[in-house]
Amino acid sequence: MGGTAIFTKSHFPFHTPTPLLQHIEAATISLNLPNLDPIIIASIYVPVTSDPLLFTLDLESIMQLVSNIIMCSDFNAYHQVSKCSKNRQRGNQLLKYANQTDLDIIAPTTPQDLVTTQRPR
């Protein structure tokens, strides 16, 4: 197991509500800022050896924590939407899940780019 981590300043009010997961590794924090709904930030790693169809069950468990969520991840999910040369089963499953749950996928357009928004619709 590789593990994940999230760093935060100690003055942010947060707690770590990570559910029991079967197919992915994750660390989550819930930021509870004044006058705002809680926001979950999740650091996720999907091992190459995990089931390419069942990993979304764990994503759903994390999504059930709150309605506002940011997932930062190495999904090991290759798809042309994220500028990979080929579509793989996990990439197809992630794109399907993102479309079903109205999630935006943000990925580099090339390995040298920092971040660009990709809307897979």
What does this structure look like?
This protein is of the alpha+beta class and 121 residues long. The radius of gyration is 15 Å and the shape is globular. Mean pLDDT is 83; it is low at 112-119. The protein has helices at residues 55-63, 89-101, and strands at residues 14-15, 25-31, 39-45, 69-74, 105-107, 116-118. A hairpin with a 7-residue loop joins strand 2 (25-31) and strand 3 (39-45). This is RNA-directed DNA polymerase from mobile element jockey. GO terms for molecular function: RNA-directed DNA polymerase activity. Residues 39-111 form the Endonuclease/exonuclease/phosphatase domain. InterPro entries: Endo/exonu/phosph_ase_sf (IPR036691), Endo/exonuclease/phosphatase (IPR005135).
Give structural attributes.
four-stranded mixed β-sheet, two-stranded antiparallel sheet, globular, 121 residues, 6 strands
Assembly type of the chains comes to single chain
- Major β-sheet annotation: 4 strands, mixed
End-to-end Cα distance: 33 Å
Element order, helices and strands? EEEHEHEE
Number of helices: 2
Average pLDDT reading: 83
Strand content is: 15-25%
Radius of gyration: 15 Å
Order of strands, main sheet, comes to 1-2-3-4
GO molecular function: RNA-directed DNA polymerase activity
Pfam families: Exo_endo_phos_2 (PF14529)
Protein name: RNA-directed DNA polymerase from mobile element jockey
Organism: Caerostris extrusa
